[in-house]
Amino acid sequence: MLERQIAFRSLDFGNGGDGRWAAHAQALWPLVAGWMNEESGSPEGAERARRLFQAHMPELVPVLDLFAHQLDRPGGETFLTLATVRPFFSSCTQIGGSGTLLRNYDFSPDQYEGTIALSRFLRPVIGMQVAAWGLLDGMNDAGLAVSHTFGGRFVHGPGFAIFIVLRYLLETCDTVDEAIDRLRSIPIGIPQNVTLVDSEKAVTVHVGPDIPLTLAPDACAANHQHMPVPDKQERATRTQERLQAVRAAGTDVAAMLKPPLYQTAYKEGLGTIYTAHYQPSERRVTYYWPGKSWEQSFDDFTPGSRTVTVSEAD
Structural domain boundaries of the chain? Predict the structure, then answer.
C-alpha cells in the first residue's frame, strides 16, 4: 500500500463580510475556477445564471452580491451561482436515522478543498465546504443536516451544482419536510441523492435534470438511484454492494471506516477522504479517519488544521 497525506482546515467565516471568506476564496480561485464550464465566460451564460439564482434562491442573492464584490475575479459572480459548473462525479455512501447523519465522502485528494466551515451568512451553519461557498454536507442551528452522493447516471442538464443547493437548504430551512418542499422546484444539473435528517425524520431523495424528486425506499444512498447500474460500473464503484453494506450496518461509524464502505482507490478518484458523523440535535459533527477524529460544534468551534495519512491501493 502507498501512503499519501490529505490536509484539512477549519475556518470561521462569520457573516462573510469581514474579509475572512474573501481571503480564503481568492487563495482558492485557481482550484475553484476549474469547476466552470464554457458557458461561464459568455454574457448570455452570466445572465442566465443570475436569473436562475434569483428565481430559486432569492434569500441568498444579497450574500451572492457581497461575495462577488469581494472575490473580484473575472466571471466570479457567475461562478458563485454554481449554475455554470461542469459535470462532476464522485463515489460516496451515506445513511440517516435517529437524529444522525453519517457519510463517507470519496473523491480525488488532488481536487479536494478540505475546509470545514462555520458561517453565519443567514444563520449558523457548519459543513464541509466546496467551490468557495457550496457544501458537500452540513448542518444548521435548527437541527437539520443534509449530504449528497452522485446518482450514478451520466446525464446533464440546466441547473445548479448540488453544493449550492445544500447551502441554500441549510440557510433557509428548519426541517426535513420544509427542505424537501423547496428541493422539489430547484433544477439540479446532474443526478444526485440527498439525505436529510432532523430530530423527527430521516429521508433520502433522488433528484436530477431528467426526473422529478423521488423518495428513496429508505434513508440510505450510494451511487445509483432507482435503476441498477451496469456491471462495469458496479465493478468500478461497488455502489450496490456499498448500499447493501450500509443498510446492514446502520449508523455505525466503525463500519464506515472498513471495506467495502471505506475505499482506497484514490488514483481513480474513488478513495474515502473523510467520514462525517452529524448529530444536529446535539449541535455537533465529528469527522473520522482511521485512527483519528476531529469534533466541531456550534458551541465549541475551533479553527485549526489537521493532516491525515491515508493508504492508497497499489
Answer: 2-15+89-312
Please report which residue ranges of 118-270 form alpha helices under DSSP H: 162-172, 176-183, 231-237, 239-249, 253-256
pTM listed for this prediction: 0.96
Bridge partners of 277, per DSSP, are 102, 286
Cα 135 to chain centroid, rounded: 4
Number of H helices, E strands in the chain: 9, 16
For 62, the enclosing helix (H) or strand (E) is helix 61-71
Per the structure block, which three cell numbers stand in for 66?
457581497
Is the domain spanning 2-15+89-312 CATH 3.60.60.10? The answer is: yes
Series of mean pLDDT values for 10-residue runs along the chain (314 residues): 90 97 92 75 89 98 97 90 86 94 94 94 98 96 98 94 98 98 97 97 97 97 93 95 98 98 92 97 97 97 96 78
User: Phi-psi bin for 275: left (phi > 0), alpha (psi -120 to 50), beta?
Assistant: beta
Task: Work out whether strand 220-221 and strand 264-265 pair parallel, antiparallel, or are unpaired.
Answer: unpaired
What stretch of H or E contains 287? Answer: strand 284-289
